[in-house]
Write a structure and sequence with these properties.
The protein has 8 helices and 18 strands. The protein has about 375 residues and is α/β, with parallel strands linked by helices. β17, α7 and β18 form a beta-alpha-beta unit. α2 packs parallel to α8.
Length: about 375
Amino acid sequence: TLQGAEYPRIHSDGRVTFRVFAPNAQRVRVIAPLGKTENNGYNGLGEEPYEMAKDEAGFWWITTPPVVPGFHHYYLDVDGAQFCDPGSKTYASRNLRSSGIDIPEPGVDFYDIKDVPHGEVRMRWYFSRVTNQWRRILVYTPPNYDHDQDQRYPVLYLRHGGGENEDAWYDRAKANFILDNLIAEGKAKPMIIVMNNNYADTPSQAFQLPDQPPPHEISEITIKELIPMIDSTYRTIVDRDHRAMAGLSMGSVQTLYIGLPNLDTFSALGVFSRRPMSPEEFKYFDPYFEDPESFNSNVHLFWWGAGTAEEGIYNAAKKNLQELEEKGINSVFVEFPGLSHEWQAWRKSLYDYAQRLFRWSSIV
């Protein structure tokens, strides 16, 4: 909710009241953009649109039943036209701007801002020779980064999902607060986090769909431009043992397609809510698993996670990992009961994954 706005209003029991002024409208609805699917589950705001009722003053109202905790995208449908809620901030979602609401989860505060030392989220622009375009990144530097000029840090490259941008892990997941709190509690190693835009579209290239293999441009940008720029700009530990990647949904697709062919660059991979792979696509990765002993010694952490309510994704991940286990490949699978293809699952994914990162190093 924007500062000073009365609505949307979150009640103590998790219900939400929406209100919008549209005196000439004939029908107004609150719609969650992620409808229920076999793979994804559904948006925790609700499976179906909420029909609003108009009062004599021209305000439309609805109070929902208790909503699943977490961050949810939504928009207003006014006589068939899509609008953002004027009382909400807007966020990149599904290649559009949408409104968002964040329902607290009782007893869960790992992503809250607390009275602990805080890092910084820095914005940086760089020019890509691959796409011939300027690109923006957000970089989290841990607490005390500017005070101890001799200390160097490992790096996590954190990828967003389909239809989003580099803001996602910062303004929805609150990745910086998650790391601030973990570092303060001694549960995570201090690290730098790089949040890049995962699209590398050129005028001649079609827009990437979330469940497609990533175009080679984004791999080229990551390996040949982004990582060298980060290593030359920030005080990183420049070796594979101190470099990790992770991503959600489309970002997890990219993590596999970029990470596995470049295990000389990364030593840890995090796969958050990976969309189901066909048998043919899964076989594409066979060459990287042919030598389990070498893979297990090189990859310090091969982490997968999914919410149990994103049933297709959850079941496919378990099946894929079972097949890899039979080949002798070590991995970690973490499930999040009742969570769907949404930010609460990915917040908890990062919370778990970050605690396991770089524990194999005596440098940090």
